[in-house]
Task: structure prediction
Amino acid sequence: MPTPVRVCLIGAGRVAQVHAKSLVHHVPEGRLVAVADINAAVLQETADRYGVEGRFGTLEDALEGVDFDAVVITTPTFVHKPQAVTAAKAGKHVFLEKPMALDLEECDEIIDAVAANDVFLQLGFMRRFDPEFAAAAERIEAGEIGRPMMIKSLTHGPGLPPPWARDLKTSNGNLAEVNSHDWD
Result:
């Protein structure tokens, strides 16, 4: 049996709930050992729901308080770069929710930190693995349905995007935050 991968969830909000549920119920080789969030109430609710003892206000606190192998970062886009770089420099593998960062320079900084510290980076584009999305892509690539002129997507998340996702100072807007799955 493979050695379990110990994971720290950074961010405990609505997207974090999806990842926590997956880690706890559907990833036999994964162990959710810590959750970090600056919102104490959200942190407690998520940690209680998934039976996680390691509870921290920040990634830095978690790094000092518990041993883990990887992080799942589900925080707002404007803090992805500092959190991903901090995790990589600490030798932790990084699963980073999309969008990766606010601009290409920040993306490059994350990539450089990951490469310099020999850890893995994966972005949260999970829709490409959904059977319906994969089947549609295969049909398009095979030319079965002709050249697409328009795509109508009826997917939805667990709720409305938070206010920071609608502010271009802290986000790249809903096309990046939500519809990037469809573009992917």
Summary: Residues 14-26 form the longest helix (13 residues). The first strand starts at residue 5 and ends at 10. The mean pLDDT is 88. Helices lie at 14-26, 40-50, 59-65, 80-89, 104-116, 131-141, 174-177, 180-183.
